[in-house]
Specification:
Elements (H helix, E strand, L loop, with lengths): L1 E5 L4 H15 L10 H9 L5 E10 L2 E11 L6 E8 L8 H15 L4 E8 L7 H8 L3 E13 L3 H7 L6 E6 L5 H17 L14 H13 L2 E10 L4 E10 L5 E9 L8 H15 L5 E7 L4 H10 L2 E12 L1
Parallel strand pairs: 4-5, 10-11
Antiparallel strand pairs: 1-2, 2-3, 3-4, 5-12, 6-11, 6-12, 7-8, 8-9, 9-10
The protein binds coenzyme A (COA).
The site of coenzyme A has 21 residues, from β4, α3, β5 and α4.
Protein name: GNAT family N-acetyltransferase
Amino acid sequence: MQIVTVDGRDRATFEQFFELRDAVRRESEFPAGLGLEESLVLFTGEHSAMRVDGLGLVDGDTWLGIAWLDWWLQENTHVVEVELAVAAQYRRTGVGSRLLEAVAELARKDGRRLLSGSALGDATTGESAGTAFAAARGFVRKHVDLHQVLELPLSAERLDELDQPVAGYEIIQWREHAPEEWLEQFAEALSAMTVDVPTGELDHDPITWTTERVREAEALRIKQGRFSFTTVAVDADGQLAAYTQMGGSAANPDRLYQWDTFVRPEHRGRRLGMAVKVPNFRALQAELDHPAVLHTWNAPTNTPMIAVNVHLGFRPVAQRTDWELEL
Ligand SMILES: CC(C)(COP(=O)(O)OP(=O)(O)OC[C@H]1O[C@@H](n2cnc3c(N)ncnc32)[C@H](O)[C@@H]1OP(=O)(O)O)[C@@H](O)C(=O)NCCC(=O)NCCS
């Protein structure tokens, strides 16, 4: 048995690594996450914000478990994000622990002081093998997100019912690239979102989005075969007051994601969240020719966001808990 490193240059190794990770994700009733090619782009590319690589524990040709590692390069340079996945038949034999030890060693060598990871669990209790493992290995639970799903498409009548434009705001939409005119304000809004979004006790810094970083993220998304729909609301003075983003990838067309929804503090309380979401649904559904599941994650303490989602018809399917281990 040995630990191998996975960096994407050897495609055959990468495919074994990915297949195991994806098989474990598919155990969930509503699996989410990147496809093979999307992941490979992360493992092979140079990205200023993140380096991504992994480890596998293998016995001959058999892969017992993997660790997927995200190394933040700009903010959060004290953290390594780790996802562990152990093949079902090898669980409770120490595979996860062995991979974790190897990850901790790499992280220390790189000068990182914190391992951070998420575990999916039951929608009500949040508990699972992942949470039991994290607790047994000394991780501390720092944050909870509720995973909600909504089956699409919504009917035209339902969208009409939900559609409540807010007077005094113009709705603007775009696809893969933020128009130059809105780029700077959009970058500011993305940064403000990372400050405001509830992250519990997590020892994570907010992200500073520059216009260059937005463009780099857009280019990366295109390279990965992903697509996005953005809707913003702009007030009479030309201030970008709210935005929402949804998207997915050609590789997994039945998995769609509701990413950020953000309303600037001075514009809150006017139902702008819904006012940007509904036109975004319309844009997305105009190109949707098959049923799909829309996924979203929000802190249960973020009651306004959860309430908007419940009103839209989202239902809870799991809890994702975030854990940290000081090295
Ligand atoms: C979580 C996971 C990685 C654990 O891997 P593993 O190889 O089974 O873990 P180990 O054998 O090293 O277990 C170490 C300890 O964790 C605890 N533990 C692990 N699984 C457990 C379970 N199902 N129930 C209770 N305790 C558990 C135990 O204390 C165990 O020690 P013990 O077997 O001596 O009692 C594996 O169950 C898995 O892949 N689950 C699905 C994906 C996931 O949840 N990943 C975690 C996200 S980072």
